Amino acid sequence: MKDKHIIDVLDNSPILTLSESQLSEIQGHVRDCGSCREAYEAARVSAIVLQSRAQATIEPSPFFQTRVMAAWRERQAVESVPAMWRLWGSAKALVSTMAVTTAALAVLSFVMPATPASDQAVSELSAESVIMGQASDEQMSYEQVFATIYEDVDEAR
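Request: output the structure for the sequence above.
Response:
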């Protein structure tokens, strides 16, 4: 192992898993090789740090349990309310507005007087009678329509 560097050995397996014979060979080699000594020390320190970090227990903050329990109780309180009550809480303004609008329209429908007779006469006129200037209830024939259209064209020439 004198001409072989131990960096490859340290890269392939963790230092804590090496056997006693491998560790003694490595320690013998690092006395003569400076770069391997640095790698061995770095591997040894990192193994110690990892081992101490793995053994450390981290306690949560004093208020962690309080915050978790408060959030859990809040969720339970929301879930215990029936769905219809939650829906009503969200939609009561919309439903109330729609009810008031419907009531107002119903009142206006019954309270407003009927349309005057002149409005009824206007509504009975057809579009053709207004365009052609005729006030009769009879339907116009195609000949009458063409005669009226072409009569206006002949006058324009």
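The first helix runs from residue 7 to 12.
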